[in-house]
């Protein structure tokens, strides 16, 4: 692992799935590689956003990165739209990937089926994501399981460009996706065969990183399990219980086997899951509050944008040059 890049959309209600599937790993990886963690506000614009809310969510997303333990002196935290190379590289990706490839993206199919308006940006979303990644000569991309197909596209584009030019113009990135039992796919509390999602209309299905302890306890108490009473990891037959086991395991460090051996029913199990989630999120929420002091996160983001720009501009130039764009004198 040399260079790590990942991004999160600044939409309200960052979830426990976002944290356990991705952000938690960012914190670990920051000491192992050069890391770039981006607030992808341009991606958020693919669906209609209230401007005031988008600005607030952008700051909040950055605050959560820092509150979760990403050290801005170690890793680079920045806002996508602050570094114009992203939009420029996005175009170069759009002309390097095929209509048919984008049409096959399952996330586009899902989102466009639900959306009231389907913007062109929603369709080309994965091309911009490939741009984000390739701009930093990224070797590894930590994401949840739902981003796998987008990552494969980024790899395909990179391989294609290198083949076309017969040399390594861009670095082919590797996915860094935890297996399900390690948080790669945290499921909805109400419908545990679906992933936990920010946009779930059922409030009790999703734990948000900024939920109060009481809200967290209520949601876990109400979480769907099954009619047995055995705490056993079996995502096929016992999706609800298995999901809670994964959450408990990640929040405490206990293995799934240890957890399975501990309980004879769901009552105490659910209580322990709730307390483990509260104990995990409370210190993050505390730091988040401190970071709401005016100016603090803004300064971090300014430094981050400068670092990100310094690294990404030469990579953009390298590809522009390979593609035959005339350098400005
Ligand atoms: P976004 O904002 O939807 O989600 C952020 C991260 O959280 C992960 N995630 C989950 N992991 C486990 N279980 C879940 N239920 C769950 N829900 C979400 C996502 O996989 C993701 O890692 N397209 C990206 C943002 C992006 C990006 C990039 C990521 C833009 N450019 C470049 C990596 C590299 C997205 O929409 O993430």
UniProtKB/TrEMBL annotation:
Has keyword Protein biosynthesis? yes
What GO cellular component term, any one, is given? cytosol
- Report the enzyme's class at the first EC level: ligase
Record-annotated residues binding L-tryptophan?
Answer: 132
Q: Which residues bind ATP?
A: 9-11, 17-18, 144-146, 186, 195-199
* EC number(s) recorded for this UniProt protein: 6.1.1.2
A Pfam family found in this protein is tRNA-synt_1b
Per the UniProt entry, what is one GO biological process?
Answer: tryptophanyl-tRNA aminoacylation
Q: Does the keyword Ligase apply?
A: yes
According to the record's subunit comment, the protein's assembly and interactions are:
Homodimer.
Biological role stated in the UniProt entry: Catalyzes the attachment of tryptophan to tRNA(Trp).
What is the recorded name of this protein? Tryptophan--tRNA ligase
Task: Look up and give the organism this protein is from.
Answer: Symbiobacterium thermophilum (strain DSM 24528 / JCM 14929 / IAM 14863 / T)
